[in-house]
Amino acid sequence: MSSAGRAEPLGPPSSFAKRLLVTGGAGFIASHVIVSLVEDYPNYMIINLDKLDYCASLKNLETISNKQNYKFIQGDICNSHFVKLVLAFSLFLDLSFVRAFEFTYVNVYGTHVLVSAAHEARVEKFIYVSTDEVYGGSLDKEFDESSPKQPTNPYASSKAAAECFVQSYWERYKFPAVITRSSNVYGPHQYPEKVIPKFISLLQHNRKCCIHGSGLQTRNFLYATDVVEAFLTVLKKGKPGEIYNIGTNFEMSVLQLAKELIQLIKETSSESEMETWVDYVNDRPTNDMRYPMKSEKIQGLGWRPKVPWKEGIKKTSMLYCDFLHKIQMRNASVFRIVLVLP
Length: 342
Known about the structure:
InterPro entries: dTDP_Gluc_deHydtase, NAD(P)-bd_dom, NAD(P)-bd_dom_sf. With about 350 residues, the protein is of the alpha/beta class.
């Protein structure tokens, strides 16, 4: 392991067929991506660069931490000198965020630094992981990849701005970048601030699920391993300059989500009893009702979500007890995947 901000060489480039750089790899989604890459591609060197802030945990990567084709580097992608060293030596890099100004700094400035350095290093492929929130909300119209960006919160705005930087490098230099926009992801290792692990944690501690407003806002939920498969599909088959929505037809209101978790964890199907585990509070200033999204484009590459909701949520609930005891209180990680030329 390197000390923060120090780039170390990885050995002879010929040792591995390719080198994959993932930023924010100790975070929720990225840790699943890294484990899958390390186990499925033993001839690839997988480099994890992470700043290790509050939502990141190396516990997520214990199963592969001693693998020969895995390396962890601690560092910050907003440090432009360090990023250039990392890409020069094919190392890993991370990015963290906390509040609105930090979202902007990391997502916009950090992405610009990373894209610029990746362009100079002539990487083979760059995947920028964005969000369906860049579209804004819609009650009926489904968004496709050509829909205009209309973000309604600072986080989504910063991701939309970062997309523009990535796209500008494709337009100007034909930099081989691909953008993905995914629905809500859930599964083991997710930090408790997100709705599903938050509700599970509250119920396991005999506390009520906190519902903002009516709870009729709906979200599309994807299990973590399905999103990993989507990223790998884009890595192998995605075309530079393209955007791919990663979504599912499964949609559920926040209130129904709470009731299903209450039924699962508290083992009750009584409507009146389930209501006693719900606490309604004032709605947020901006709380989009829906993010309906079409995913035909990535499905054309052969990807489909495989994990049914009942299976995924049951597995998540069972594993989450153990995760609550292991989680390290550190900062959130945002990640990208960079394919570096051998």
